[in-house]
Design a protein that fits this description.
By secondary structure, the chain is α/β, with parallel strands linked by helices. It is built from 10 helices and 8 strands. It is globular, with a radius of gyration of 17 Å.
């Protein structure tokens, strides 16, 4: 184990990004005519609302969101993904988030993005931030194709803790010096595990919890520098 190396974890959607990559990927598929525009768009919105409300059935959502991956060859999917990242994601990369990542990298921290959004969508986004380690929900890939199913534990709610613990064992790391940045109340199980939880532009439920527990609250929006809104200095 490497007990003294600081570990810095970042949620991705609405934390490092000024939007939700999972939801936007669904929108992109609709806009490109890859999926049925009416039924898919409506379901995408419904699942996103459930996520924000904390009532999302992650297995049901993944059955929906991973199905298009099974319907096309990987080469076509990767070409679409390249356009998606350029058109939908790069404009949402927050300058203050880049500064924050750079700060922790310069400190010598071990950096990782930990996200419920599947690895097919998020791998190139992690590369945009220069973050090597990505802990994400894993779409199943067999015999040269995506199957539309997922493998292992979805990286969502308490599943983030499960996936992180497995990753820490693989890396020989500990959580003794750990920080986690997140916007969502869905991440409370992991926020409660790390040494330093930080709420980033939090939803109303997480903001209430953060204020009650005196956690730092940070904004990465509408500014070039990370700005603390509240919490201990």
């Amino acid at each position: 184990m490497i007990p003294n190396q600081s570990l810095t974890l970042f949620d991705l959607d609405n934390t490092l990004l000024g939007g939700d990559s999972d939801y936007l990927w669904g929108q992109f598929l609709v806009e490109q005519g890859i999926v049925d525009p009416e039924t898919y768009a409506a379901a995408n919105r419904r699942f996103y609302q459930q996520y924000r409300q904390g009532s999302l059935d992650i297995a049901e959502f993944l059955t929906f969101s991973l199905k298009p991956l099974s319907e096309h060859p990987p080469e076509r999917l990767y070409a679409w993904r390249e356009r998606f990242v350029a058109e939908k994601i790069e404009p949402l990369v927050l300058p203050a988030a880049q500064i924050l990542v750079h700060y922790h990298r310069e400190r010598g921290d071990r950096l990782a993005i930990i996200t419920a959004t599947n690895a097919f969508v998020t791998e190139p986004i992690a590369e945009l931030f220069g973050i090597q380690h990505l802990i994400a929900t894993q779409p199943e890939f067999r015999q040269g194709r995506y199957t539309g199913r997922f493998t292992g534990t979805p990286c969502f709610q308490a599943g983030k803790v499960t996936r992180l613990m497995a990753w820490l064992r693989e890396q020989g790391l500990s959580m003794k010096q750990s920080t986690f940045y997140s916007d969502s109340h869905n991440d409370l199980p992991l926020l409660e595990k790390v040494r330093q939880p930080v709420a980033v532009d939090p939803d109303s439920s997480l903001e209430q919890t953060a204020r009650h527990r005196n956690w730092p609250i940070l904004t990465l929006r509408q500014t070039a520098e990370p700005v603390r809104l509240d919490g201990p200095s």
